Amino acid sequence: MKIESYKNLKVWEKSVELVVLIYGLTGKFPKEELYGLVSQIRRAAISIPSNVAEGSRRGSRKDFRHFLLNAFGSGSELETQIIIAKKLSFGEFPDFVRIDAALDEVMRMLNGLIKKLEGK
Predict the structure, then answer these.
(1) What are 1-37's pLDDT values in tens digits?
(2) Which residues contact 116 (CB under 8 A, 6 or more apart)?
(3) Contacts of 10 (CB under 8 A, 6+ apart)
(4) Cα-to-chain-centroid distance, residue 66
(5) Which residues contact 115 (CB under 8 A, 6 or more apart)?
(6) Quick one: pLDDT at residue 5?
(7) Is residue 120 packed enough to be buried (19+ CB in 10 Å), middle (13-18) or exposed (0-12)?
(8) For residue 64, what are the contacts with CB-CB under 8 A and spacing of at least 6?
(9) Domains along the chain?
(10) Res. 119 pLDDT band, cuts 50 70 90
(11) Nearest C-alpha neighbor of 18 from the set 110, 112, 87, 86
């Protein structure tokens, strides 16, 4: 699997778009959450495209898969944190709908790419 640039990967592009949505949502959270849930959510979101980018530059399928698994784990963290934010009534329903859809798409893409690298 030859990748010219991680920027050509649709999963990287979609995960960057997810980060933008996350920043929009968390910008509306209570200010006292800046160092709590806001920080956690933003770090988990940023970790997804960052791991895709780093893994794609490592040079081996095994390393790339490892970093995709890290990105997938960050996606699971983000999913959990979004559920918590919903339960705390932070943010607005339309924002959550967009984020849920974007995160689901990214997670499916990551899963597909991981399986492809496993040869399944």
Answers:
(1) 556 789 999 999 999 999 999 999 999 999 999 999 9
(2) 1
(3) 109
(4) 15
(5) none
(6) 85
(7) exposed
(8) 1, 55, 56, 58, 117
(9) 6-20+31-118 (1.20.1440.60)
(10) confident
(11) 110
Instruction: Provide Rg for the chain, Cα atoms.
Output: 15
Angle at CA of residue 27, ends 24 and 28, nearest 5°: 100
Q: What is the pLDDT of residues 60-96, one digit of tens each?
A: 899 999 999 999 999 999 999 999 999 999 999 999 9
Is residue 120's pLDDT more than 90? no
Residue with tokens 């920027």: 7
